[in-house]
C-alpha cells in the first residue's frame, strides 16, 4: 500500500512514544504529525501542561500532510471552510511550532477565510447543518469509489468482467459512506484534519464489495429478479455464474483487504464474512419460544446487516489509532445504526410497498421470514406462532399475518425500536470531538429513520 | 446394478479398506497412508468440526429432501464422504509434506517446539483451508441454471432447493476459510490464497465451459497452451500458491518459495494429465471422457480442422460414440504424446524438490507424485470389485 499507510504508522509510533511522557498526556488528542518531532524536542520550552495544551488546541488549520491524495486539491479545502461551522478550537491563533513550515494551502488564504466565514456560519449554523447532505462531506472520496472498485475487479475475460462490475456505481453506497464519515470523525478527533487515509478508503471499498457479493448470493437464494433498478444477475445470466461472480468479488475484496497489511483489520473483516453467512443460516430457522425468537431475530439482524457496518466503522477507527474506548464507540455507533437500518427496512416491507405500488408486496413474508413487525404481532396473537414456524407456507398465511400486523401496533413498535437504536448511535458520537463529519453521521441516523424507500 | 457397483467401488477405495486393492491405484493408497503417518495425521475439517457445526447440521437436515433428485450437490457430497481418489485430502497432504520437507524456520523467532511431526500448526491450518476452499469450489460449481433444467432432471423446485443448499453450504465453507486465513495472521498469505479463489472462479468463465458448466472447445482455442492455462486456473493455482504460502509461513527463503510453487504447479499438470489419459485408456473411466481433456486438444493440433469437426459431432451424439472417439484420438498418437508430457511434468515436479535435503517427507512426496502420475491400465475399480466378489 502506498506511502500514506506507512507514514501513518510512523506517525503512530511517534505518538506512542510521546504518550509515555505524562507531561504530554493530552497531546494525543491533538497530535499533528507535522509537529510531532518538533514538539517532542520542545517540550521543555513549555512551562506547564496547560500552556502546552492550550497552544496545541489552538492548532490546526494546518493539515495532516500524509492524508489521502484528495487533500491536495485546493477547492477541497475551500469547500470545507465555506460550508461548515468551524468549532472554536480549530481556529488558528498562532503557529504552534516555530520550526514547522506553514502549510501552503492553508497558511494565508484560509486564515482570511476563517475570520469571515466562521462568523457567517455561526449565524446560520443550525439551518445549514441540518440540511447538508451527508454524502457531500465525503463527496471527493466517494466520487471515484465505484470506478476504483471496478479497477480492482478487472479481469481479461470481457463477459466475466461485465458481470463482476454489474452492480457497482448503482446503489446508495450507504456502507462506504458511513465508513468514510467515521474515518473522518476519527482522524479529525486526532486533529489530523478533514482527511481519509488511502487504507481507510480501501476499507470502505471492501465494505461495498462484501455487501455486493452477499447481495449476489442472496438474490440467488431468494430468487430475486431485480436489484438496484436492473434485472438481477441471476435472472440475466443464470444462477451458476452469479454464484461464481459473487465468490470472485469476495476474493478480490479479501485481496484488497490483505494489501492493507494489517492482521487486525483482516480479522475484523473476516468476522463480517462469517457473520453474514451465519446470519443467512439463522434466517432459515426460528425459535419455538417467544422470547428466544425475538433474541434470535435480533442476533440474525446483527449478523446479517449490522456486523458489516459496525466492524468497518471499528476498522477505520483502529486505523486512525484513536483510543480503545473510541474504537468501541465507533463499533457501537455502527452496530446501532445497522440495527436501526434493518428495523426500518422491516417496517418498509409493510408500509412502503403499499404506498408505492398501491398494494402490499410483503417480500419478507413471502420468503417465509418473520420480521420484527410480525414478531411483535405474534406476541399478542399466539395463532401466528405456527405460521412463523412453518414459514408462512400454507395458503392464506401471508395475508393473515399481514392483517394481524395491521391490527396490532407491530409497525409502530418496530419503529420505536429503530428509533431507540438510532438514538443510541447518536449518543455514541458524543465521545468524539465535533466536526462536520460527526454531524453528518448523526444526520445519517435521523435520515434513515425517516426514509421511505 | 450399476449403482451397486459404484457403491462397492467407492467403498473399497476409502482409506479404511485400503488393504483390499492391488493394481494401479493401490500404490497411491499406500503412498497416501504412508504420507499421513509422516505428517502425524491428516487434515480434519470433514471429520468432525465441520459436521458438528450448527450450520452444517442444518444443511444436512435439509439435504435429506434432496435425496432422489438429480441435483449435482448430492454427487459432490457423496464424493466428499467416499472420495475414491483421495483427491481432497491428498492436496492437503502435499502442503503438509512440503512443509515438513522444508524443515523448521531459518529464523529463531518461530518456536520450533510448536511443530507437531515436523509441521507448524499454521501450516497445518493452511492445508486444511486449502481443502475447504477446494470443496466449496466443487459445491458452487454444481449450482444449476434453473432456465436450463431439462424435464428429465425432475421438478424445477427440487433443483431450486438444491441450489439454495449448495450456495449456503459453499458459502459456509468459504466463510470458515476466511476466518482460518485471518487467524494465520499473515496478510501476504491471505492475499495469495484469496487470489487462488479468484483464479478458480476465472477458470469457469473461460471458453472451456459454457454458462451451464458444460465443456466446450472454442474456435479461438490455442490448443495445449490453453489447456495448461485452464488447468492452472482451476487446480494448479491453489496447490502451487498453497505450497508457496506454507514456505512463507515458516519464513523460508524466496528460492524455496519459488521451488514450492513450481512443485505444486507441475504436480497439478501431471495429475490432470494422468486423469485425462486414464479417461481414454481405462474402460471404467470412459464416462469421464471430456472434450477439453489434453488428448483431445492435442488431437486437434494434429488433424485437419474438418476431422476435428467430425469428432465434435460424434461427441454431441452422446456416450454411445465414446469408443469411436477414443480410437480416433489414440490413432492420431495424441495419447502417447500426452504420456510424454506427463512424464516431463512429473519429472519437473520431482526435480523442484532438489532444493530440500533428503528426508522421509521428501521421499513421500516423490512417491505421491509418482503415484498420481501413474496411468497403468489396470484400474482399481475392476480389481476391487473382483476381490469383493471373490470374497463373497
Automatic annotation (TrEMBL), chain A:
Q: Does the keyword Metal-binding apply?
A: yes
Q: What is the lineage of its organism?
A: Eukaryota, Metazoa, Spiralia, Lophotrochozoa, Mollusca
- Its family? Belongs to the FPP/GGPP synthase family.
PROSITE patterns xref list: POLYPRENYL_SYNTHASE_1, POLYPRENYL_SYNTHASE_2
A GO term, aspect molecular function: prenyltransferase activity
Entry's InterPro entries? Answer: Isoprenoid_synthase_dom_sf, Polyprenyl_synt, Polyprenyl_synt_CS
> PANTHER family annotated for this entry?
ALL TRANS-POLYPRENYL-DIPHOSPHATE SYNTHASE PDSS1, GERANYLGERANYL PYROPHOSPHATE SYNTHASE
What this protein is called in its record is Uncharacterized protein
Q: Which GO terms describe its cellular component?
A: mitochondrion; transferase complex
What is its cofactor?
Mg(2+)
Q: Does the keyword Nucleus apply?
A: no
Q: Which UniProt keywords apply?
A: Isoprene biosynthesis, Magnesium, Metal-binding, Transferase
* BP GO annotations: isoprenoid biosynthetic process; ubiquinone biosynthetic process
Pfam (any one): polyprenyl_synt
TrEMBL record, chain B:
The GO terms this record gives for MF are:
prenyltransferase activity
Sorted alphabetically, the Gene Ontology cellular component annotations on this record are: mitochondrion; transferase complex
Keyword entries, A-Z: Transferase
Which Gene3D superfamilies does UniProt cross-reference here? Farnesyl Diphosphate Synthase
Recorded hits in Pfam families, A to Z, give: polyprenyl_synt
Q: Which GO terms describe its biological process?
A: isoprenoid biosynthetic process; ubiquinone biosynthetic process
> Coiled-coil annotation: which residues?
none
Enumerate the PANTHER family for this protein: ALL TRANS-POLYPRENYL-DIPHOSPHATE SYNTHASE PDSS2 (PTHR12001:SF55), GERANYLGERANYL PYROPHOSPHATE SYNTHASE (PTHR12001)
Family of this protein: Belongs to the FPP/GGPP synthase family.
Protein's name according to its UniProt entry: Uncharacterized protein
Organism of provenance = Elysia crispata (lettuce slug)
